[in-house]
Amino acid sequence: MEKKLKQLFDFQKFEGNSDLQLIIDSVHARYGVKELSLDDMEFVAAAGDPNASKKKEQEKKEP
Q1: CA dist., res. 60 & res. 45, Å (int)
Q2: Rounded CA gap, 25 and 33, in Å?
Q3: Can you give the pTM of this predicted structure?
Q4: pLDDT, tens only, 41-52
């Protein structure tokens, strides 16, 4: 099991991938390289729910 997990998360295999590097460079050129603040991270929907921040705000407003 540990071996399988290591293989799944072995990101070093992408190192040196010129196609991937072009995409990364393109994104950096458009948006720059900036760390997200904790406030900005509240708007990141890692689970894929684009309305997560709206739901959170609405829950705060309800008594």
Answers
A1: 18
A2: 10
A3: 0.40
A4: 888 766 667 776
